[in-house]
């Protein structure tokens, strides 16, 4: 499911100078329901995974722009 959420990333300020905020959780819950997953499981497991995703994408964006 996590790979399928790649297109559902929320960004503020545009990709060139913006910040990744996280996944669209409404879309995540709908995707999970379509896959037959429990909303409770999604609500419990996805936020910690989302936090790692946001941190890693932010690090990658900073490294690519020369910011440290």
Task: Summarize the SSE layout with pairings.
Elements: E1 9-12, H1 14-17, E2 19-23, H2 25-34, H3 39-65
Antiparallel strand pairs: 1-2
What does the average pLDDT come to? Answer: 79
Summarize the biggest pleated sheet: 2 strands, antiparallel
- Which stretches of 5+ consecutive residues score pLDDT under 50? none
Fraction of residues in helices? 55-70%
Number of H- or I-type helical stretches: 3
Instruction: State the strand order across the main sheet.
Output: 1-2
Distance N terminus to C terminus?
A: 32 Å
Summed up:
This protein has 68 residues and is an alpha+beta fold. The protein has three helices and two strands; from the N terminus they run E-H-E-H-H.
Q: Explain this structure to me?
A:
By secondary structure, the chain is of the alpha+beta class. The protein is built from three helices and two strands, in the order E-H-E-H-H. The radius of gyration is 13 Å and the shape is elongated. The termini are far apart. The mean pLDDT is about 80.
């Amino acid at each position: 499911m996590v790979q399928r959420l790649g297109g559902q990333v929320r960004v503020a300020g545009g990709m060139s100078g913006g910040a990744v905020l996280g996944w669209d959780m409404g879309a995540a819950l709908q995707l999970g329901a379509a896959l037959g997953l429990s909303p409770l499981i999604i609500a419990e497991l996805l936020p910690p995974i989302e936090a790692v995703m946001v941190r890693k994408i932010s690090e990658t964006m900073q490294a690519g722009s020369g910011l440290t």
